[in-house]
């Protein structure tokens, strides 16, 4: 995993910290990686990002999500998984773990006799089911729109992406998509942007997303080159 | 065209964002995280908590502990380890960051919360003199306390006499927080002579409302108590993560490069010697004013405002009541007042109490309603209170009787509610005639719930494994060939191989 460290800009401290963390994990030293990463603001950013997205999530659950993500990271490296972008992988796993913790906590309720009263009155389990149903419906809507995205290559890229997000894959590199589809990375990048642009536009037209909904492009100038 | 409710639309937008961020080369999430972490680094208490959670997760993992370096690091005193690691970054960052203070350095102001750095307009007047100022945010930890503050004159002289030197910044803070005891201070002032704790609690709830004033190099000309209170919030375990976040950055006014000594003197004299003769209103009263104004705004609208319209209305209210650049305080007040009204209705209508007595209690415990209003999702305090009238009545009765020792106990109610024994203790707390007995039962309720919650977490693994094994055994064999994707088969195989080693290590070679 030490081959690609995505954050090159900014303080040299960040790059050094990520490299040191990558080396520690590759050597099996999980805590060494944490200490190395701690020298950078990455851990802070991960916690802040989760709190921004789910401000109602208790602090100890956010902390737990971070802890479990590190353990999963270490496990994935030991299992020989290729992690091209460790920070991205960790951040996505923290987010997925936080979402999972929320679902787990809600699911614990029916086992608790103290909550039977609330359940009888149409309380939490129904809400949880509703949330999961909403999620499933959102995925179904996204899949339904795929044939309307135009070019077959755009559809193929978007199908891979929607499938991956549905399966809660932590990170999906352009390299992975390009290899899976037998296409060049630059083409995949362009189809990816086009796919999301069209998906967002169709979603707004159908009332699936707000009219002014848009996804921020991190690197718009690359799109122009195509 | 599908008809989408608000939540479903949010879910779809969230799905698209998640999908978009899945690809690191496009989303630059790593860069965003670094920038976010740099802009809002974790406070020391937050950092300790997160590092502890990571250390505990790894310590519970046989896989991680199989590595001798990790085992060696995590086998000892975790608290000492965390302190060492947290301190290591302090050293790193202090070594890396350029000095922000000093006679020739200019402290840079930052834009935050949609408030740009810029001149204070109209130009403020101090002691009859107009003084040009800029406004913006600075990190509280970058501001040094002012060692020329007349408020501290005696203390500083005492310190110099005892130590033969001037106090360092952290020692100045200790003096202001009454942590550094000096002879001659009256007994009743030894705990918190400068009343920093009360101010800290106010700032924790509302943010810093009057901007401290700093010189060009960051020297604090006005606002020693406010800055000390922010530092206390950052360092004290009494305050939660959200409150620490609120105290990390402070909105300040800064002298310009054109300021002269006469300007500095005018500021110091005006802010430190001239009283504004204000006795602040109780927050309960202020919040009710805001809530009344909110109702008036709603009443003239032809329909229920959208989320965006509500946000705009709150910004207007925030401006009208001088509550700062964001709408957090307005939102908080509205929720608190709604809960206070529920509290009052309960005691006046159902308990037949005197309305004024009830309002006095609501005012006294008004900050507690902030905690009651939090957690509107399943598992939160507000959710439980809304779901169950009996539970809400019980909490309101305990609050009226003063049986909560502090607002943090309100936070633990979400655990108490889900635990039968803890709930019983809560009922006993209400039944107790004596306040001390009631508080003791309430302490018991919180302790039981916390203990049980820890047990539930560790039991969760068994439940999940049982469910997974049962599901796996029921799966038709053909599913492995026809349904399950190869990559998932590989993952399952890896996981089972990994688990197999652990099982053998625990149960012996047979695994039985």
Strand and helix map with partners:
The complex is a heterodimer of chains A (226) and B (512).
Chain A: H1 12-26, H2 30-38, H3 42-53, H4 59-78, H5 86-108, H6 116-120, H7 124-145, H8 152-166, H9 174-181, H10 185-205, H11 220-225
Helix pairs in contact in A: 1-2, 3-4, 3-5, 4-5, 8-10, 9-10
Chain B: H1 6-21, H2 24-27, H3 29-39, H4 44-59, H5 62-65, H6 68-74, H7 78-96, E1 118-119, E2 125-126, E3 129-130, E4 133-139, H8 153-163, H9 169-176, H10 196-206, E5 213-214, E6 220-222, H11 224-235, H12 241-248, E7 249-255, H13 261-273, H14 283-299, H15 307-320, H16 328-350, H17 355-364, H18 366-372, H19 381-387, H20 389-400, H21 408-411, H22 413-417, H23 420-431, H24 435-474, H25 478-482, H26 486-507
Parallel strand pairs in B: 5-7
Antiparallel strand pairs in B: 1-4, 2-3, 4-7, 5-6
Could you please describe the fold and organization of this structure?
The complex is a heterodimer of chains A (226) and B (512). Chain A has 226 residues and is mainly α. Chain A folds into two domains: 1-111, no CATH class; 134-226. Chain A contains eleven helices and no strands. Chain A starts with 11 loop residues before the first helix and ends with a helix. Chain B has 512 residues and is mainly α. In chain B, strands 1-4-7-5-6 form a five-stranded mixed beta sheet. In chain B, strands 2-3 form a two-stranded antiparallel sheet. Chain B has four domains: 14-96, no CATH class; 118-273, no CATH class; 283-453, no CATH class; 475-507, no CATH class. Chain B is built from 26 helices and seven strands. Classes of the chains: A mainly alpha (226), B mainly alpha (512). Chains A and B meet through helix 2, helix 3, helix 4, helix 5 and helix 7 of A and helix 1, helix 2, helix 3, helix 4 and helix 6 of B.
């Amino acid at each position: 995993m030490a081959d690609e460290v995505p954050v090159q800009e900014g303080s040299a401290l960040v790059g050094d910290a990520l490299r040191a963390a990558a080396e520690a994990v590759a050597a099996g030293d999980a805590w060494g990686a944490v200490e190395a990463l701690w020298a950078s603001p990455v851990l802070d950013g991960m916690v802040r990002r989760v709190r921004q997205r789910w401000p109602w999530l208790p602090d100890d659950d956010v902390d737990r999500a971070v802890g479990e993500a590190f353990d999963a990271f270490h496990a994935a490296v030991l299992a020989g998984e290729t992690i091209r972008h460790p920070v991205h992988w960790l951040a996505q796993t923290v987010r997925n773990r936080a979402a999972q913790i929320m679902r787990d906590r809600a699911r614990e309720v029916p086992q608790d006799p103290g909550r039977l009263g609330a359940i009888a009155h149409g309380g939490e389990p129904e809400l949880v089911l509703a949330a999961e149903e909403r999620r499933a419906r959102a995925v179904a809507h996204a899949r339904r729109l795929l044939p309307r995205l135009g070019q077959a290559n755009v559809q193929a890229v978007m199908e891979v992406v929607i499938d991956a997000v549905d399966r809660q894959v932590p990170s999906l590199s352009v390299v992975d998509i390009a290899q899976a589809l037998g296409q060049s990375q630059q083409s995949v990048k362009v189809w990816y942007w086009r796919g999301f642009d069209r998906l967002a536009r169709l979603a707004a037209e159908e009332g699936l997303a707000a009219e002014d909904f848009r996804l921020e492009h991190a690197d718009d100038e690359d799109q122009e080159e195509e | 065209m599908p008809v989408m409710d608000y939540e479903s639309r949010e879910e779809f937008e969230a799905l698209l964002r998640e999908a978009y961020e899945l690809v690191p080369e496009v989303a630059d999430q790593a860069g965003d995280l670094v920038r976010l972490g740099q802009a809002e680094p974790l406070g020391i208490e937050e950092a300790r908590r997160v590092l502890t959670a990571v250390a505990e997760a790894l310590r519970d993992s046989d896989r991680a502990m199989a590595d001798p370096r990790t085992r060696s690091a995590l086998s000892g005193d975790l608290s000492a380890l965390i302190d060492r690691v947290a301190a290591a970054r302090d050293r790193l960052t202090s070594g890396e960051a350029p000095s922000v203070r000093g006679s020739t350095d200019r402290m840079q102001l930052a834009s935050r919360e949609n408030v740009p750095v810029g001149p204070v307009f109209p130009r403020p007047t101090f002691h009859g003199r107009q003084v040009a100022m800029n406004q913006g945010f600075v990190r509280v930890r970058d501001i040094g306390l002012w060692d020329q503050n007349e408020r501290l004159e005696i203390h500083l002289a005492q310190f110099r006499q005892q130590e033969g030197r001037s106090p360092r910044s952290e020692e100045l803070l200790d003096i202001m927080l009454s942590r550094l005891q000096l002879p001659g201070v009256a007994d009743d002032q030894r705990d918190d002579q400068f009343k920093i704790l009360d101010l800290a609690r106010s700032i924790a709830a509302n943010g810093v409302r009057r901007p401290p004033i700093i010189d060009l190099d960051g020297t604090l000309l006005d606002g020693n108590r406010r800055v000390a209170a922010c530092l206390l919030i950052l360092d004290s375990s009494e305050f939660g993560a959200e409150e620490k976040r609120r105290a990390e950055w402070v909105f300040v006014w800064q002298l310009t490069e054109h300021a002269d000594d006469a300007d500095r003197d005018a500021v110091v004299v005006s802010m430190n010697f001239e009283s504004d003769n204000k006795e602040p209103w109780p927050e309960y009263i202020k919040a009710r004013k805001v809530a009344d104004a909110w109702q008036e705004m709603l009443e003239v609208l032809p329909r229920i405002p959208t989320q965006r319209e509500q946000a705009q209305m709150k910004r207007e209210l925030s401006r009208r009541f001088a509550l700062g650049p964001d709408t957090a305080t307005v939102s908080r007040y509205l929720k608190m007042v709604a809960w206070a009204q529920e509290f009052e209705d309960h005691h006046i209508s159902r308990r037949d109490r005197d309305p004024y007595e009830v309002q006095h209690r609501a005012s006294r415990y008004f900050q507690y309603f902030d905690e009651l209003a939090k957690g509107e999702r399943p598992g939160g305090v507000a959710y439980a209170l809304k779901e169950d009238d009996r539970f809400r009545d019980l909490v309101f009765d305990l609050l009226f009787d003063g049986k909560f020792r502090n607002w943090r106990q309100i936070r633990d109610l979400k655990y108490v509610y889900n635990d039968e024994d803890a709930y019983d203790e809560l009922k006993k707390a209400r039944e107790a005639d004596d306040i001390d007995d009631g508080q003791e039962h309430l302490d018991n309720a919180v302790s039981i719930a916390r203990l049980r919650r820890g047990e539930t977490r560790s039991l969760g693994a068994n439940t999940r494994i049982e469910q997974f094994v049962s599901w796996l055994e029921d799966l038709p064999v053909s599913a492995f060939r026809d349904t399950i994707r190869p990559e998932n088969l590989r993952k399952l195989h890896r996981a089972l191989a990994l688990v197999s080693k652990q099982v053998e290590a625990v149960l012996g070679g047979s695994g039985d």
